[in-house]
Amino acid sequence: MDWPQELLDIFADPLLADVKPKPQPLTANDHKVQKLQVVAEWMAENGREPQSDGSLAEMILCRALAALRKEKELLEPYDTNHIL
């Protein structure tokens, strides 16, 4: 497709150099994958699963892990550390 020179000049304007398309909103599944990654990072740092009798942050991760395990089939492709 050939663009008119007037449009090409507008697009080449330095004021538009940092303009990018709006990112796609995250889906519920995307949030679950992100939470799985957060739990996996925590487990890598601490060498164990989060426990329900730990700090508040650890308790939250423990509950998140329990909820994620209920959706094992959906998240299995993203579970590179085999924590589910």
Summarize the structure in words:
It contains four helices and no strands. The protein has helices spanning 5-11, 28-46, 56-69, 72-75.
**How many strands in all?**
0
Main sheet makeup:
none
**Alpha plus pi helix count:** 4
Q: Approximately how much helix is present in the residues?
A: 40-55%
The helix/strand series, from N terminus to C terminus, equals HHHH
Quick recap:
By secondary structure, this protein is mainly α.
Defining key terms:
84 residues; mainly alpha; 4 helices
What are the SSEs and their pairings?
Blueprint: H1 5-11, H2 28-46, H3 56-69, H4 72-75
